[in-house]
What does this fold into?
Amino acid sequence: MPGLRIEGYVIVSADGMLADASHIMPDQLKFEGDKQFFTAALDRADLIVHGRRSFEDQPNSPRRTRLILTRTIDAVAPDPANPNATLWNPSGASFEAACERAGVRAGTVAIIGGPGVFGMFMDRYDTFWLSQAAGVRLPGGEPCFPGVPERSPQDILAAHGLKAGDALILDAAEGVSVTPWRRAA
Ligand SMILES: NC(=O)c1ccc[n+]([C@@H]2O[C@H](COP(=O)([O-])OP(=O)(O)OC[C@H]3O[C@@H](n4cnc5c(N)ncnc54)[C@H](OP(=O)(O)O)[C@@H]3O)[C@@H](O)[C@H]2O)c1
It folds into this structure.
């Protein structure tokens, strides 16, 4: 769909983890500056895409149009629990078909995880916003992308044709920044 702009968002530890060893995003990875950045991005997005366990759970969440990946359905179906959500199983329907069913044909799509979902879109991101907390390590945690920790998240984004822009500081005291990784034109 040429009218869709695909953007990814994640915050990771210094060792590239998006959650701890019990698959939970720990408080150590939660920072007010990053939350504000992420919230503003989701409020601007036309569609949010995530796996069943990566719901962002914010005050504006019920108003946001979203696709939720799940294998509990065959292809695409309305979410009985949320009128603004469409359930999507990629093995039974294309991303384009799922967007159609969600009523989104143009605009910005925010991909917000988890790792397998990030991996599916690696060759499609226009920009991936990689937030990192330099002072946090989560040994044995859940890697943010397939291929981490053997390779760094940055190496993986670069291998998929994305180039780092200037980092924005989100929390100077805690060493948290976000770097836009953009596809070369
Ligand atoms: N730090 C961050 O920025 C960040 C970002 C995202 C997530 N997280 C954290 O990471 C953890 C979630 O990790 P997770 O790996 O469990 O993530 P997840 O992708 O949100 O959830 C996995 C579930 O999504 C569905 N799913 C995923 N890929 C699918 C596919 N290709 N086809 C069909 N269904 C698919 C399946 O649902 P069914 O079981 O219904 O089939 C699967 O069980 C949470 O703790 C979350 O808070 C952190």
User: Anything to note?
Assistant: The pocket of NAP is lined by residues 10-11, 18-19, 23-25, 29, 50-54, 69-72, 89-90, 112-117, 142 (CB under 6 Å). The two ends are 17 Å apart (CA to CA). Residues 75 and 94 are 9 Å apart (CA to CA). The chain is about 20% helix and 30% strand.
